[in-house]
Amino acid sequence: MKTILVTGATSGIGKSTAELLAKQGNRIIICGRRSEVLESLKTELSQFTEIFSLKFDVRNLEELEKAINSLPAKWKDIDVLINNAGNAHGLDPLSAGKTDDWDSMIDGNVKGLLYVSKMIIPGMKERNSGHIVNISSVAARQTYANGVVYCATKKAVDVISEGMRIELTEFGIKVTNIQPGAVETDFSVVRFKGDQERAATVYAGYEPLKAEDIADSIAYCINAPKHVCISDMTIYPTAQAEPRTIYRK
Q1: Looking at 150, 220, 236, 247, which residue is catalytic?
Q2: Considering its fold, how many domains does the chain have in total?
Q3: What range does the domain containing 155 cover?
Q4: For the domain that residue 181 is a member of, what is the CATH number?
Q5: Which of 16, 192, 242, 243 could form an S-S bond across to 138 if both were Cys, CB 3.0 to 4.6 Å?
Q6: What is the C-alpha separation between 242 and 59, in angstroms, rounded?
Q7: Which residues, if any, are the signal sequence (predicted)?
């Protein structure tokens, strides 16, 4: 049994991952911004294992530190950190981009990941064990027009993952960087500011990945034998050839 902390656990990949790992008997710390959703998920998953919930926004360092420091002693030794929280806002060229959107993506996808990791890594180093899973994107592999800042934040996740691995391997800490392709979650709804119709077109004409597919991949990585570290994993739906190319019926 592992103690696993999942950020962004209230929806999408994070929720599916928390559900799967709970059913596998791990103790899960679910983190998110919405109290009512956290409590509902805690009730749902408590039938499988022990669940602890923390409410915080990864972009808010003070709030994050207070929440993680509030963990009871039995929950403080975190074996696996899954840095899933992140966002995409807008699909505009740089010249027309909204700086609030840029700040949200940089603060959530990059600084938030760093903030959480900084809180958890010291304990892993003391115990000479641990596993960090960072959720990047195939957008890190190929920049596309109108998504430059989002792509940049996910490229940063790749670089941070590599740096973590260089710094932490001597402490017996594994680092896995996962790059999902097109996954049908509320990702596009958020990107298009709640425009459900526009978001639906992103997944039209082919079968995209599901959040459960990425959860399966994460579970595979963290359940690998102790001497095995999956450093990087790229996952596309069958219809997607590269970040910008999807074959639709």
Answers
A1: 150
A2: 1
A3: 3-246
A4: 3.40.50.720
A5: 243
A6: 30
A7: none
